[in-house]
Each structure stands twice: as C-alpha cells, then as structure tokens.
Amino acid sequence: MNDRPSPLRPVLTITAAATLALMGYEIVRSAASSVFLAHYSANRLPEALILVPLAMVAFTYLISVVLRRIGPGPTYTVTLVVSGLTLSLAAIAVQRGLPGAAVFLYVFAQAYIVFIVEETWAFINSHLVPAEGKRWNGIIIAISTVGSVSGGVLTGLMSKRIGSERILHWAAILTVAAALLGRLAFRLAGPRSSRADREPQKMADHFAWDLLRGDPTIRRLALIVAAAQSVSMLFDIAFHRSLQAAMPLQDPRTAFLGYFWGGVNLFSLVLQLGVCPLLLARWPLRRIHGAVPLLYGAAALAGVFFPILPVLGLAFFLSKTVDYSVFRAAKEVLYIPLSFTARYRAKMTVDALIYRSTKGVTSTLLTLAGRLWGPLSGRLYPLLIIGLCCCWNRFTRGLPEPPPS
C-alpha cells in the first residue's frame, strides 16, 4: 500500500509562486535594461556585465550558507523577500539619481531570478517521482510562462503611464507575494524534504567544482551552457545597440521591450506545449542539441548582412524562444540519469553560476577589445556568434543518449 501523500497541491502552489516571481522579473528585465540605456551608452553594457560573475559567486555562496543553517523553506522565503526589497530600494535610488544605481539595478536583475528559479525546481524535484515529472513538468513550465507573458504585457501597458522606475515597485510587490505562496507550498508539503546532500567541508564544496572535474556529462554541459550564454549575450548587445539608435526615448523603449519579451514568452509557450514533446519523442537528444547552434548561426548570418533593428531583433527573438523551450527541455533530460548530487549541486553550478557568469567573462573580453581597438563594429557581434555556434555544435557531439527507461 502506498502511503505517500499526493505532491500535486504543494507543487502547483510553488509553481504559482514562481509564476508571480517571473511576472515581476519580466517587468524588471525590461525596465532595468531601459533605465541603463537612459544613463549609459549601449556600448557600456559589457562593462556592467563584468560585475555579474562577482554577484553570482557571492549569491551562490550566501545561499549555500543560508540553506545549511535554516533549511530550504526559510531560504526560499528569504530569497524572495530580500529580492523584492532590493528591487524597490534600487528603484528609489535610480529616481533620486544616486551614482551607480542604474548599474546596480541592471546587474541585480541579471542575477536574482536565477536563484529563485533553481530553488523552485529543487523543491519540485524533491516531491515528484520521475513518472510524475514527465507528466507534469511541461504543464509547470507552461504555467510559469504565463506569468512571464503577463509581466511583459503589463510592462508594455504601464511603463509609459507611470514611468520605468515606478513600475519596478510593482515587480517588488509580486516578488514578495510569491514568498507568501512559497511558504504555503512548504507548509502543504509537510516536514518531508529531499535527501540530505553531504555538507560542504571547504569553500570549493559550495560550488561543486569536484563534480565538474569528475563527471564528463557535467563538463560537456558546462561547455554548452558557456557557449550558449556567450551567444545570447552577443545577440543581446547587438539588439540593444540597434534599439538605442532606433528608439532614443526611455519610456517608449521600455514599452517596446515589454511587448518584445511578452512575445518571446508567448511564442516559447507555443513551442513548449506543441513542438518540444514531438522533438523529444522522435529525435535523439544529441541531434537536437546539435541543431540549436546551427539555427542560431543562420540567424546571426542575416545580421552580418543587415545589422539593423528588425533583423537583429528577429534573430534575438528566435534565440530566446528556442532557449526557453527546446534547448532547456532537451538539456534537462540529460540530468535525469545522473546522480542526486550531480542533479542538484552541479546543476546549480552549471545552470546558475556558469550560466550567468559567462556573460561577465565575455563582456570583459569585449571591453578589452573596445579599449584596444575603439568602438566595435555592429557586424562583429553576429560574426562572433557564428564562430561560437561552430564550437557549440562540436561540444554536443560527445553527449550521451540517456536510456529510455
């Protein structure tokens, strides 16, 4: 007789929490980018992104320490409440013209949401068995994507009416509200928690570097994620450079970005529900992972010949929709046959720390190149993307094909 309680209520409750947090993030992402462009040139985006690895290392270590001391439930609450308060304080600082406030907001926006998402999935993976995960994960992602779409639409509707800084307070409220739902989810789940991982004994254990050295699949995933994020950042900078030139006013630009990201998430939702199940059922994972960089490279090639907003915007749109749907769905399957420690600790290192820190490393190289050779040509970014996509495609050739059962 199976006495295991149904995990559906706590899982759907924490999914609702993540939906609110992602709705807030879509507001933050658009507003933070537009506020930054109002204070600095788009050519200085790489300089701001240099700070992201420092933020990621600090946040990863702090969350690891807090998790060990107070447990997963309170850590989840603290992460959301502190994030919401920080967003509101950053908005006030920008409004009052404090030096560096726009940079802080932009860097914080890059970092905080990753940890919220990873903590959410850690809870979900601790309460579902594999069969339930296969049945419910697509629905979970789709529900949270609705929050992202709603946040983008809300930004587009309200940013010109109340201003890019004030709408950040709405994002803060949504994030704190997500903390309340998160507490309810842990209460519904009861005292049962995930299997305890070994306690970190030294600094490196907080970042799971031992697993990166010892597991070939994790190493290859780390290379793929690093290449994917470098490509994403180059698309991002090329897009924002062309956007700043085409739309110099802050609030209309924020509205445009709100609709843009709303469209990205809406199209991602279609791919998540309609395309991903067919691809994962019929194509080997290695072929799917190999095809993604080829698609990005083709989109970048169009940007080489036509480095204008419609072309670069479409290329960026395509890259993000595939990233949020096909690429992520195929990547998550690779974690399933790995050990518990690899699926939790190493995943945090790859999908949070390396995921975001790669932007800073790539930005450092671009900044140094700009200092040595002057402003970089708009065509250089898609050319670099093509080269990185070739490397990315090669990294996928060593990926294992997980057994069907």
Give a brief rundown of this model:
The protein has 405 residues and is mostly helical.
Describe this structure as you would to a colleague.
- The chain is mainly α and 405 residues long.
- 82% of the residues lie in helices and 0% in strands.
- The protein contains 14 helices and no strands.
- Helix 4 packs antiparallel against helix 5 and helix 10 (250-282) crosses helix 12.
- The mean pLDDT is 83.
Task: List its traits.
Growth Hormone, Chain: A; single chain; 0% strand; 405 residues; mainly alpha
The CATH class is identified as Mainly Alpha
| CATH fold topology | Growth Hormone, Chain: A
Structural class determined from secondary elements: mainly alpha
What proportion strand?
under 5%
What is the helix content?
A: over 70%
Let me know the largest β-sheet.
none
Provide the succession of SSEs. Answer: HHHHHHHHHHHHHH
Instruction: Please state the second-level CATH architecture.
Output: Up-down Bundle
Count of helical segments?
14
Shape: globular
CATH superfamily: MFS general substrate transporter like domains
Tally of discrete structural domains: 1
What is the β-strand count? 0
- Unreliable stretches (pLDDT < 50, length at least 5) are none
Radius of gyration: 20 Å
